[in-house]
Design brief:
This protein is α/β, with parallel strands linked by helices and 492 residues long. Helices cover 48% and strands 13% of the residues. It contains 21 helices and 13 strands. It has helices spanning 3-14, 27-41, 71-80, 99-110, 130-133, 146-163, 173-182, 188-202, 209-221, 243-257, 279-290, 309-324, 335-338, 347-361, 380-383, 399-412, 422-428, 434-450, 457-465, 470-473, 475-486, and strands at 19-23, 45-49, 53-56, 86-90, 118-123, 136-139, 227-230, 268-273, 294-298, 327-332, 366-372, 390-394, 490-491. The strands form two sheets. Strands 7-9-10-11-8-12-13 form a seven-stranded mixed beta sheet, with helices on both faces. A hairpin with a 3-residue loop joins strand 2 and strand 3 (53-56). The longest helix is centred in the N-terminal third of the chain and has 18 residues, at 146-163. It is elongated.
């Protein structure tokens, strides 16, 4: 148990704050902290829950107080009690929707100068009614640091050896350090549970265990669905072209994964360009190249009709990303959330402000990859140099890259590209995006299947001839996009 936590909690209790909100999922750990402090403070410690009612717990064999299982009856009991106590009250947040309970808590707080009760509200959430917020002192126990996590892993390894006739856990020092890194941001109880789970599965900690650990970690941290998690990310071998982007990402890999004091840690990049050009695949490939989990932030799910909820959703999503570090945070179609829609009562601007503040102040190893299709809606605060490390423009592929993309999609479907005329396909698909090239291959497969024949170049050429690419249908907007990008971005 962290010494700093005990000290901070003691300071808070001595400051005579009437209400203390402890945000944690480790109720037993929080209770143990109060048990340790009570002898120092010389104040009685009592406990209440809706299932058992109230009783003192600093003295053994104390009976429960009668008629205190109902929340309002319990608070009235505290208000009438002449002996000041510290009340440890878990999971009270559902009852704060009742204005009677809110008023009773407020009266206990306002009566603090006469009878200095301290009511400790312990919950996983941090939202409290407006009437109580100025009366509440907040405390969140610190999560275990790397040393504490490492100690827990070693303790579980020793326990495994003890249970298995001295058989030692098979693991390299490098894998243990990566496991410790992946378990950061979790409570001590969750760290111990996950470490025990992978050790007892086969008596080893291996590379193959890490994706499952990250998946479990994400599920523990997920706060509402705005983020999607994947560890199975793309490789740059699946991306056609984008050679400048590849070099840029390769060059910064070590600086992000193993920070060097002589170099600024990479923060992120913005990818804009034509629809279907491969921006999303490139975002996934960054995570794949760096061997990191990918978190996709769906900006559309942030919005909520209630005031302040959209910003809270974003705040919680970013907190989850920071706890998942090191990771890549992919913000897809960012313009949909931070552009001024003119009819959202300023929500977009508040989300933009919160996002920009987080980007400036975040110190966790979270690399942001933002993608955008409509640059007209991107605010200047976001696209100016310095906000992100670089802005890349993903244009339509040229003839050479189109041939490369055809080869990639044929290989993905177990066809040998050498059996196709890639040059003819590339020349016939001028103005096609990567997504349109893939769809031509998919449609050609259906055509070949209908004809009961093997896929050939002629099938793909026929499907290309039936397609009008988006760049032709919407040539004017595409030209405006290219004009905008020519002086503001780096060609991917």
């Amino acid at each position: 148990m962290a010494t700093d936590d005990i000290h901070d909690l003691e300071v808070l209790l001595r400051s005579q704050v009437p209400l203390i909100a402890v945000q944690t999922r480790e109720e037993q750990r929080a209770l143990e902290m109060f048990r340790r402090l009570i002898p120092v403070l010389g104040r009685p410690l009592a406990h209440w829950s809706v299932t058992t009612g109230a009783r003192r717990i600093d003295i053994q064999d104390m009976d429960y107080f009668d008629n205190t299982t109902e929340p309002a009856d319990f608070l009235r009991h505290v208000l009438k009690s002449s002996q000041a106590m510290v009340w440890f009250v878990p999971d009270f947040h559902p009852y704060l929707k009742d204005p009677v309970n809110v008023r009773l808590l407020k009266e206990i707080a306002l009566n603090h100068t006469s009878i200095p009760h301290t009511v400790v509200l312990v919950s996983h959430q941090a939202d409290y009614p407006q009437e109580l917020r100025k009366l509440i002192g907040r405390f969140s126990p610190a999560l275990p640091d790397s040393d504490a996590i490492r100690d827990i892993v070693h303790e579980e390894a020793r326990q495994y050896a003890s249970d298995n006739n001295g058989q030692r856990v098979r693991a390299s020092r490098e894998i243990i350090e990566r496991l410790v890194n992946n378990l950061s941001g979790l409570t001590a109880w969750d760290v111990r549970r996950l470490a025990r789970q992978i050790i007892h599965a086969d008596g080893a900690i291996t590379e193959s265990d890490l994706p499952a650990v990250m998946q479990a970690k994400y599920e523990l941290l997920d706060r509402g669905g705005a983020l999607a998690f994947t560890y199975d990310t793309a490789q740059f071998s699946e991306v056609g072209g984008m050679h400048n982007l590849r070099r840029w990402v390769h060059r910064r890999r070590r600086a992000f994964l193993d920070p060097d004091n002589t170099l600024d840690t990479p923060r992120g990049m913005l990818l804009t360009g034509v629809q279907g050009g491969g921006k999303s695949l490139a975002a996934k490939a960054v995570a794949g190249l760096w061997g990191l989990p990918l978190l996709q932030l769906d900006m559309g799910t942030l919005y909520n009709k209630y005031h302040g909820e959209s910003e809270r959703n974003l705040r919680e999503a970013l907190q989850t990303a920071a706890a998942m570090a090191p990771c890549v945070l992919w913000i897809d179609e960012i313009e949909k959330a931070v552009g001024d829609s003119g009819g959202d009562s300023g929500v977009s601007q508040r989300i933009l402000g919160h996002l920009l503040t987080w980007m400036a102040e975040n110190r966790a190893a979270v690399f942001v990859v933002a993608t955008a299709n409509n640059i007209d809606k991107l605010p200047p605060e976001l696209v100016r140099k310095g906000r992100l490390d670089e802005i890349f423009f993903v244009d339509l592929p040229d003839t050479e890259i189109r041939a490369e993309i055809f080869a990639i999609h044929l290989q993905k479907r177990d066809f040998d590209p050498a059996n196709f005329d890639l040059q003819a396909l590339a020349e016939a698909s001028e103005e096609f995006s990567g997504a349109e090239i893939e769809q031509a291959v998919v449609s050609a497969l259906y055509l070949a299947h209908e004809q009961d024949s093997a896929l050939e170049t002629a099938h793909i050429l026929e499907e290309i001839s039936h397609t009008r690419p988006l760049a032709v249908v919407m040539s004017e907007p595409l030209q405006r996009l290219r004009d905008w990008a020519s002086e503001r971005t780096v060609k991917a």
